[in-house]
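Quick log. Single chain, no ligands specified.
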Amino acid sequence: MTSDIIRTTTIEPRFALPLEQLQRDCFPTLGEAELMREEHFLNHCRLFPEGNFVALCRDRVIGLGSGFLIDFDFDQAQHRFQEIIDGGYYSNHDPAGAWYYGGDISVHPDFRRRGVGSMLYEARKGIVKNLNRRGIVAGGLIPGFAAYKGSMSAHEYVKRVIAGEINDSTLSFQLGRGFEVRGMLDDYIEDDASDNWATLIVWDNPSFKAK
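-> predicted structure:
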């Protein structure tokens, strides 16, 4: 399998059902209520198709980078995943929003470490630059915390990941893509591996121009 047959494209209704299965393949530790389904992806197609990206290997759906625009208030940053994404429907999308909120980055386990995640992050950055938005904000899970939660707090774990002392499959990757941790999100999502914690991660658009 070669990288030249893997590509990203914007979401279409025909991808909605395969994307539901992709959620189950990618997130086995998530609670059932946290997984997005076909009807959610159909809504993404309606609200903001140009900002939701699917990775394909030939015709097979192997990845997703989804999100929406919002005016994120960093002074009131604490939030829960299901609240901000409106149960997966992304109904909080504001076409004039200053920030792109990253709802989901997922890559099928068979295709990890092949550059698919990087392609999806770059697609997100591309739409942010094209629309002249301030950047990307998201709640980043810390799945590697599962092996450490009996010996340290989530805050200590994240500090050590940032320092490079611990590698986390998700957060370390995001840091490598230029994101910064701006805080911790308590009770963000029902996820055993992350013990329901997430990091508030931010990528600032270097080409943003204030109007």
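The chain has a mean pLDDT of 94.
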